[in-house]
Amino acid sequence: MVKSALVQDGWTITHDPFPIDYGDVQMQIDLGAERLVAAKRGDEKIAVEVKSFIDPSTISEFHTALGQFLNYRSALRANEPERIPYLAVPEDTYEEFFRLRFIQEVTQEHRLNLLIYNVKQEAIVQWIKLSNTAN
Description:
- Helix content is 33%, strand content 35%.
- The protein has 4 helices and 8 strands.
- It has helices spanning 2-8, 58-79, 91-96, 101-109, and strands at residues 12-15, 18-22, 25-29, 31-36, 43-50, 83-90, 114-118, 123-128.
- It is globular, with a radius of gyration of 14 Å.
- The chain starts with a helix and ends in a 7-residue tail after the last strand.
């Protein structure tokens, strides 16, 4: 779903999944992608962790997703600092849950980059980039 949406948006999927090691810890981010942008900017690279938020406890899923995002961002900072991490969330979850004041504050505090996608249309609805780099 998100993979298809990224391809439609002009991205090339480079990793599915995207393995990343940090010392003795091995992790896998759901997707790695890149696309050629304006010549002055060169290649733009991202890593995307996809979450469906289908668990009855949305806040528990958010805790897990936030922890994963922070770990992946740290590992990317060490291994591929040019690659920007994103958390992909369904549009309805974004509208119903990520608009809550507490969630917005946590998202801002931790500079959580979001990729909002429409499940049925398999399309990216919105990019929210709160940090320019993987740090």
